[in-house]
Amino acid sequence: MLFATWLMIGLFLDGYAHTNLIDELESFFTPWHAVFYSGFLATSAWVAWIIYKNVIAGHPLREAIPRGYRPTVLGLMIFALGGVGDGIWHTLFGVEAGIDALLSPTHFMLFTGGVLGLSTAIRTARLRNMGETVAAGDRLPLLISLLLATAAMAFFLAYVWIPGQPSILEVPYDSVSGEGQGAVGYYISGLLVSTTVLLAPLIIVLRWWKAPAGSVVAFWVPINTAIALSFDLHIGVALVFGLVGGVVGEVVGAVLSPGPSNRRASLVTLAAIPVAAWSAFVITYGIVGTIAWPPEIWAGSIILSGLAAAGLGWISLPDPERGPV
User: Fold this and answer.
1) What's the rounded mean pLDDT across residues 262-273?
2) In a domain, 150, yes or no
3) 239 lies in which domain range?
4) Which pLDDT tens digit goes with each residue over 221-264?
């Protein structure tokens, strides 16, 4: 997970460079790619060393790959192919500057392989912790793994990451002429995407365990801050959004104790987090900026975020009365 963090730092540095330093990016060989791909090499070397130690201990190769690590090995292979393809792609078609960088086929190969590797500790934690409590030694790797995998998803959806784009609330809206309806639709779509991505790691935790203290803050604050910095978005509002969502999640979680055996508490917690975060988002920009939309839109979108979160939990979390999902 430490080596994977190195890789992800390189990814966000590269995102910053594509957004702010595009005139200086003339080839595939950049300092940002050096950090990114050296993180991949370090991660690969570590996994190879683990497998090698098991082989020299007398285990057949198939058994030398630890439980939970087979998707990791597959992911590293996909990532390596994507890296080679990315170098060829940049050489033939140049360096992307905007949304096209997040939709590049070779970048999706890197994303797919990366997430398989980043999620390693999630799989191993599940194999080692079948009860509702995560062992102390597994908590930090689990949280880092969830954070990195979620950050990768957020990175590739940065073009609809509304927590860092509050100025969209200033777009004029007229219900009669239809002016501004496209902006409203983009806002609602981005709100639902951002909410889903940020709640995904918590839903994964609550399916199997009681969430360790700090889980929500660990996701909501760093991810929103990193996305805002990397893509030159509104850092102040994004930080408030993440802090409020994270703190409310921790407080509600401490009071209600959500988990696999307490489904109602889990649903309430999931709904409360985005309602609080999006309320803070609107209030903060109402103070520092201007909101051109009627209350039906911004207030309704806050309620919608809570309903969406509860719906995600409803279809994803186990029901103790009916058995496991």
Assistant:
1) 96
2) no
3) 157-325
4) 999 999 999 988 999 999 999 999 999 999 999 999 999 999 99
The Cα 283–Cα 291 span in angstroms is: 9
Beta-carbon contacts of 301 under 8 Å, excluding residues fewer than 6 positions away, are 187, 188, 191, 278
Contact present, 238 and 274 (Cβ < 8 Å)? no
Q: Print burial letters for 259-281: b (CB count within 10 Å at least 16), e (below 16).
A: bbebbebbbbbbbbbbbbbbbbb
The pTM of this model reads: 0.89
28 lies in the same domain as 136? yes
In a domain, 151, yes or no: no
DSSP state of 24: G
Question: Tokens standing for 303?
Answer: 């309620």
pLDDT at 308 exceeding the cut of 90: yes
Contact indicator for 242, 225 with CB cutoff of 8 Å: yes
Mean of all residue pLDDT scores within the chain: 91
**What is the end-to-end Cα distance of the chain in Å, rounded?**
29
Do both 135 and 283 map to the same domain?
no
**Would 320 be classed as within a structural domain?**
yes
Domain count, the chain: 2
Residue 171 CA: distances (Å) to CA of 129, 179, 180, 299, 319: 49, 9, 6, 16, 43
Stated length of the chain: 325
Residue 209: name the closest of 273, 287, 136, 294 by CA: 136
* Residues 270 and 205 sit within 8 Å (Cβ to Cβ): no
Q: Which two tokens stand for residue 160?
A: 């609809």
CB 290 within 8 A of CB 170: yes
SS3 state of residue 231: coil
pLDDT one-digit tens code per residue, 109-147: 999 999 999 999 999 999 999 889 999 999 999 999 999
DSSP-based three-state secondary structure for 29:
coil
Residues 31 and 86 in one domain: yes
The span from the CA of 207 to the CA of 319, in Å, is 10
- Contact (Cβ atoms closer than 8 angstroms) between residue 109 and residue 85: yes
271 in the same domain as 165: yes
Q: Does 131 share its domain with 234? A: no
